[in-house]
């Protein structure tokens, strides 16, 4: 088994904050900081640069996090295989800050009535949009299913999709912004502003990007990852951030306002192209539950 302190290090690296990492792991911030510092001291590795705005991995820390993710995935897979051999079939739902899987978890009691012999296991995964994270390209290995929007550019042909629902876009603005009091925004309201968007976040975002770039007076800035560092940078420059669903309102300094643009973001349950029989049964049961 691996050193459980790696959970704290990986979470802090993904969230850019010890307090947010502690919240994810359901422990106190001092306890998490102690785990990180004792690990650094014990192994002679400085994993993070500490600043007043948060933490970010050092070169050594980034390398450690990358390897730790692999180890964590291997351990999770080993435990999953052992449990299934023991007679309890579990479907592993991958969740993260930006893909919490709330709807799938909320529907689980109804799904369980249809497949009472199955269990739903929640597995924390890294940022789906981090090129170093292989969750979406290896569904069935570390986790079986993920609730997420979908990018054909990023993941086309790598998995199957069960449509779940759709959600409007939001614009996250600083709480001190004049826009913060608005209940709804239009594309015209974004003129004269720089808008940050995750590159190829999903197909709907790519559509919205084309609309915004074609609108005079709007500067679109593509970003490569969606994390607290993105919002911290946006706060310093006064930019706004395109979000949707669970992505909106994740930073305490920002408020999400619905964007009236005629485009919605579909959300899916992603699962392997060739799912295991028990995963197939789970997907079929979920499809039956969400049928109108």
TrEMBL record:
Keywords: DNA-binding, Transcription, Transcription regulation
InterPro entries named in the record: LysR_HTH_N (IPR000847), WH-like_DNA-bd_sf (IPR036388), WH_DNA-bd_sf (IPR036390)
Molecular function, one GO term: DNA binding
A single GO cellular-component term on record: protein-DNA complex
Pfam families with a match to the protein in the record: HTH_1
Segments forming domain HTH lysR-type: 1-58
Family, similarity comment: Belongs to the LysR transcriptional regulatory family.
PANTHER family, per the entry: HCA OPERON TRANSCRIPTIONAL ACTIVATOR HCAR, TRANSCRIPTIONAL DUAL REGULATOR HCAR-RELATED
Record protein name field: LysR family transcriptional regulator
Species: Parolsenella catena
Taxonomy of the source species: Bacteria, Bacillati, Actinomycetota, Coriobacteriia, Coriobacteriales
